[in-house]
C-alpha cells in the first residue's frame, strides 16, 4: 500500500528510469523493515501466562489480508499493564469501559419492554463475557454509547477500553486501532423499500440517493465503487454520523436506499416491515473487538476469551438474538479459524 502510494506520487519525477529505481528502493525498505524491528517486540506468549509481547499490532502497510485475519496477537490468559490498570480502578470506577451501540436492534439496543432499560443484544453478551473473565463479574461494565464515526476516536482518546460495536476489521483501521480475532462474519448489502425498483448493488442504483454512516466500510465501498464503475457514478451518497440514522432517512423518503452490513440491515428490516434486503452481499467482512494499539495484553486476553466463547456461548447468543433475523442456521455467520501474529 505504502509503495503503491509512493510510486504514484513519483510519476513524472526524473523520468521513467528514476521512478522505477525509487519504487524498487521503497519496496526493499518495506520488505526489510520487519526484520529490523523483530527483536523489539518481546517474546512469544502462550495461554499459560508466559511473557507478553509488548509490540504493536502490524500496521496496514504489512496487512496481507483484506480482513486482517493474521494481524492479531495470539491468545493469552495472562494479565499485563493494560489489564492491571483496569483492575486497579477504585470503587465504582472499577469497571471495564466499553464503547457500544444502543440503537442496533438485537446487537446493542435498549429494549423498550424492559423496565430497567438495560442494554441487550449479541454484542452486549460478548461484553459481559469479557468482563466476567477479566474482573470476575459480568456486570462490571460501564457502557458508553458512541456513534459509528466515533469508534476510533473514543479508543485513541482513552475514553473506552475497547469497542464492541459491529466494527469491521480492515487493514486501513490497523493504522489506528488493534483488533481481536474475528467473532462474526457478514457482508455489505442494500436495504430499500419493498416497492423500490432497486434490485441490489448494481446498475439499478443509477440516479438514486443512498445513505451510509461516516467512517463505515459501506461508505468506503460506495465511494470507491462509484470511481471504478462498479456502481453508477450518478449515485448520490448521504453521509450520517450513526448507522441507524440511515434507516430514519429512508423512512422519511430522504434517501432511496441504505448500504450497510447485512447483519445490521436484517435487523432493521425486522423493525420496519416496509423495507427489505435487496440482492446478495457484495463483500465479505468480519467483526472484531477494537482496542488501543498499545494494549497488547488486552488484545491477547480478549482472543483467549474468544477461543472459549466460540465453543461455549457464541451459538447460544446467536440463537437468542439473531436467529429470528438471520435464520436458525448460523454457519454463514461464523468466522473462520483465526490466525495469529505470535503462535501460542
What does it look like?
- By secondary structure, this protein is α/β, with parallel strands linked by helices.
- It contains eleven helices and 15 strands.
- The strands form four sheets. A five-stranded mixed β-sheet has the order 5-1-6-15-7. The chain has a five-stranded mixed β-sheet with strand order 11-10-12-9-13, sandwiched between helices.
- A hairpin with an 8-residue loop joins β3 and β4.
- α1 packs antiparallel against α2 (15-37).
- It is globular and about 55 Å long.
- Mean pLDDT is 83; it is low at 1-55.
Poorly predicted sequence stretches spanning 5 or more consecutive residues: 1-55
Mean pLDDT over the full residue set = 83
Q: State the distance separating the first and last CA atoms.
A: 29 Å
Strand content: 15-25%
Summarize the structure.
The chain is of the alpha/beta class. It has eleven helices and 15 strands.
Overview features:
344 residues, alpha/beta, 5-stranded mixed beta sheet, 11 helices, 16% strand, globular, disordered N terminus
List the helices and strands and how they pair.
Blueprint: H1 2-9, H2 15-37, H3 81-87, E1 96-100, E2 103-104, E3 108-110, E4 119-120, H4 122-135, E5 141-145, H5 151-156, E6 162-163, E7 178-179, E8 184-186, E9 188-193, E10 209-213, H6 217-228, E11 236-240, H7 243-251, E12 257-261, H8 262-271, E13 275-278, E14 285-287, E15 290-291, H9 296-311, H10 314-321, H11 323-326
Parallel strand pairs: 1-5, 1-6, 10-11, 10-12
Antiparallel strand pairs: 2-3, 3-4, 6-15, 7-15, 8-14, 9-12, 9-13
Amino acid at each position: 500500500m505504502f509503495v503503491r502510494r509512493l510510486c504514484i506520487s513519483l510519476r513524472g519525477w526524473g523520468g521513467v528510469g528514476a521512478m522505477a529505481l525509487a519504487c524498487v528502493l521503497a519496496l526493499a525498505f518495506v520488505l526489510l523493515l520487519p526484520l529490523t524491528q523483530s527483536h523489539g517486540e518481546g517474546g512469544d506468549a502462550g495461554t499459560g501466562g508466559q511473557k507478553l509481547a509488548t509490540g504493536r499490532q502490524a500496521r496496514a502497510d504489512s496487512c496481507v489480508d483484506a480482513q486482517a485475519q493474521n494481524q492479531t496477537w495470539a491468545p493469552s490468559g495472562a494479565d499485563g499493564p493494560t489489564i492491571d490498570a483496569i483492575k486497579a480502578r477504585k470503587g465504582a470506577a472499577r469497571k471495564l469501559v466499553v464503547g457500544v451501540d444502543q440503537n442496533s436492534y438485537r446487537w446493542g439496543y435498549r429494549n423498550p419492554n424492559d423496565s430497567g432499560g438495560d442494554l441487550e443484544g449479541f454484542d452486549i453478551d460478548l461484553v459481559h463475557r469479557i468482563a466476567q473473565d477479566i474482573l470476575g463479574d459480568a456486570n462490571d461494565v460501564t457502557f458508553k454509547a458512541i456513534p459509528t464515526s466515533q469508534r476510533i476516536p473514543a479508543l485513541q482518546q482513552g475514553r473506552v477500553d475497547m469497542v464492541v460495536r459491529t466494527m469491521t476489521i480492515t487493514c486501513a483501521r490497523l493504522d489506528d486501532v488493534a483488533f481481536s480475532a474475528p467473532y462474526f462474519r457478514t457482508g455489505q448489502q442494500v436495504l430499500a423499500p419493498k416497492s423500490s425498483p432497486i434490485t441490489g448493488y448494481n446498475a439499478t442504483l443509477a440516479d438514486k440517493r443512498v445513505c451510509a454512516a461516516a467512517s463505515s466500510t459501506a461508505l468506503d465501498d460506495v465511494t470507491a465503487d462509484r470511481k471504478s464503475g462498479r456502481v453508477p457514478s450518478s449515485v448520490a451518497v448521504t453521509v450520517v454520523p450513526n448507522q441507524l440514522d440511515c434507516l430514519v432517512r429512508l423512512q422519511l423518503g430522504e434517501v432511496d436506499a441504505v448500504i450497510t452490513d447485512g447483519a445490521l440491515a436484517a435487523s432493521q428490516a425486522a423493525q420496519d416491515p416496509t423495507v427489505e434486503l435487496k440482492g446478495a452481499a457484495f463483500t465479505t467482512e468480519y467483526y472484531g473487538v477494537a482496542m488501543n494499539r498499545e494494549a497488547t495484553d488486552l488484545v491477547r486476553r480478549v482472543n483467549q476469551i474468544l477461543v472459549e466463547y466460540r465453543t461455549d456461548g457464541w451459538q447460544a447468543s446467536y440463537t437468542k438474538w439473531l436467529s429470528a433475523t438471520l435464520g436458525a442456521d448460523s454457519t454463514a455467520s461464523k468466522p473462520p479459524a483465526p490466525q495469529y501474529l505470535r503462535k501460542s
